[in-house]
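Final report, Chapter 2: Outcomes

The project's central promise was a pipeline that accepts a single protein chain and returns its three-dimensional structure in a standardized token representation, suitable for archiving and comparison. That pipeline is now operational. To close this chapter, we reproduce one record exactly as it appears in the project archive, with the input sequence first and the structure output second.
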Amino acid sequence: MTAIELRSAPGRLEVFSPQTSEGAYRVVIIDNDVNTYEQVIQICMKALGIHYRDALEIAIAVDQNGRAEVFEGSQADAEAVASVIRTIGIEVLVVPAA
């Protein structure tokens, strides 16, 4: 998987592969009433290779917005990230980047 960078936009926090291009896919985490902030933080750190503070920002964005786009990259990389996040029961979408 390639390196990632965080970008903030009003109402969402996104993590992007710096080498995205046409054919890129996004990973979207959907909020639920089951997983704790700490669970979301820990799985984002593992799946995205980010630090605690960045993962906390993602957890807050998911909670406040009901979802957060957390990664953009190749379909294979997006599926790999989503697969790790799903291990704790979170609903995750992998969708083509628009």
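Archive annotation: The CA atoms of residues 13 and 58 lie 6 Å apart.
This record, like all others produced under the grant, will remain available to the consortium after the project formally closes.
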